[in-house]
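#onboarding

Welcome to the new folks! Below is a worked example of what a typical request in this channel looks like: someone posts a single protein sequence, and someone else replies with the predicted structure as tokens. Don't worry about understanding the tokens yet, we'll cover that in week two.

Example request:
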Amino acid sequence: MNDIKPDEPSPPKGPDVRDQQGPLPSKLNKRSSPSNESANQGRRQKVPWSLILMVGIAVLIIWAANNGRKGDRVDYGFFWQQLEADNVTEVVLDGNYLSGTWKDIPPTPESMQIEGKEPVELQEEFHTQIPHFESDRLLVALGEAGITEYEDVTTQLSLSTQMLIMLGGTMLVMLFFLSMMRRSSDPMSSGMFGSFVKSPAREFRPSDKQTTFDDVAGMENPKTELQEVVEFLKNPAKFQRLGAQIPKGVLLMGSPGTGKTLLARATAGEAEVPFYSINGSEFIQMFVGVGASRVRDLFRTAKEHAPCIVFIDEIDAVGRMRGAGYGGGHDEREQTLNQILSEMDGFTQTDAVIVIAATNRPDVLDKALTRPGRFDRHIVVDLPSKEGRLGILKVHSRKVPLADDVNLERIAASTIGYSGADLKNLVNEAALHATRTSKNKVTMSDFEAAADRVLMGIKREEILSDKEKRMTAYHEAGHTLVAWVLPELDPVHKVTIVPRGRALGVTQLRPDEERHSIGEQRLHQQLAMMLGGRAAEKLVFDEYTANASDDLKRATDISRKMVSHWGMSETIGPAAFRHAEDDPFLGKEMHEMRTYSDATAHLVDQEIQRVLFAAADRAMQILQEHREKLDRISEALIEQEIIDSDELQKILGPRPGSDPVPPMGSPDENA
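Example response:
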């Protein structure tokens, strides 16, 4: 089954040149300056009075529990022997304990002797523990020994001891909770509950290893926008003398992996100011109000250390539109968002605190958050251009030994659509492939293998039957032949019927130029190419297979956008019929009214079918006209399993207007 991605226009995105430096975190609650460090240590070394009181109560309880027990502790059997020998007098009973005095000090029993040492003489007084079943027998034995007068303090002392233990335990519990309540009365204190509501933001000081704009390849437009922020943090008076106000907040928008976090770190490094980094999800907890407390703590600390930069990554986790979604909103998230809005409004012109936030979902953010006065400046971080990709590759390959045949410019030219994270992963996969093959340097073939692994997945250990292999070969040959004939499509880079990832076969196209717009003619040709595999199955085997399921899904999505979004239908006309797209929350569409009638919806469906049928007929017509070439491609695939552009050119002849194909692919080429 093939995996063809539609070549739809997407805004260019900047590179992500993530350096290899590790995080240098320090907790936000370490706010003491070096001048106050000794004073803080002195305060931490003081022993709290509550601890002294609790230790005293514990000592008192232990003393009361052992009150009246003097002398040596002896075994009950030894005591019974001495009692029968009439060597016991002055007996005191205390619950299960018995204390007394020897008439004549007996020799030390063996149980109390230590091997290799001289036995220690017993004291005149002793005590022992009475077994529970010995009560009546002991009294009889005492009477027979002539000890009729003995002191029984069981009731009096045990009651006082129990009262003291109960009172002391209660006081210990009360003191513990009073101490915790006192410490947590200030939300920013260091007590148990105070630390729970502290902001978990990580602090990066100017003395730490810095990231500057020199470490960020490409992204010239975002760096120019942020240069004003750097100048304001360095010299705010320059702007204030003319009445200018620097933006309080800067919102970085871009796809994942384009370097938004790196750009914020570089801004702080250029300005040489403290940098506080936190993820939006770290504000949210199961208890309502905790997130708001953490926001207060974060902004209070930022104001104390101004000038500084506060960076909130993935702000859409906490800044989503309030009251949206099925079942209402989320109290904790909404209270946290309200606190963020309040704190950002609380900045004055003299507060040199810049809030930089990053998100890849700007469409779901609350409008009160993105309005001027909070996030005044919105910066789009695009995919990198060719020069940007080359710079990113150079940064990530600094520690990778490259062979002489590696041409980074060629790789950069053939990786259209890659983000900075994709390029970093490509270099890493190439290094891993070279390691697996026991090479000393990374070669160009390693980059080829890494591109195949990233784009198409690893090879599956599956053996196709002859029939399945032949059907898969014709399916991919159909895609390849249609793409080769139609001039608006990207050149074919590689075709394979080796099962990779979730596909049985892949037709890989390579963009020959960076495109920021797409026309109607190119879209119709792309639909024909997507349905070319299905048409080849019908032409050769007179049946359809399930291999075209992903092709149909992608083709239907493109045709729907052509008809109902982009006005590319003469029947529908210049109108857009969208439904439940402005607020992509779960359940939002359940209560939104559709803005067009059922008749219009039926007409849109008919136009989508018409476009798809026209693309299928065009693909079938091309395959019928070039049936001989279709068979030759299929036979070559069955024999070799993988065909590159050079071999395709030998089979099909030169493609009109084609240029030599560099040996690298693009994330948007999977087919």
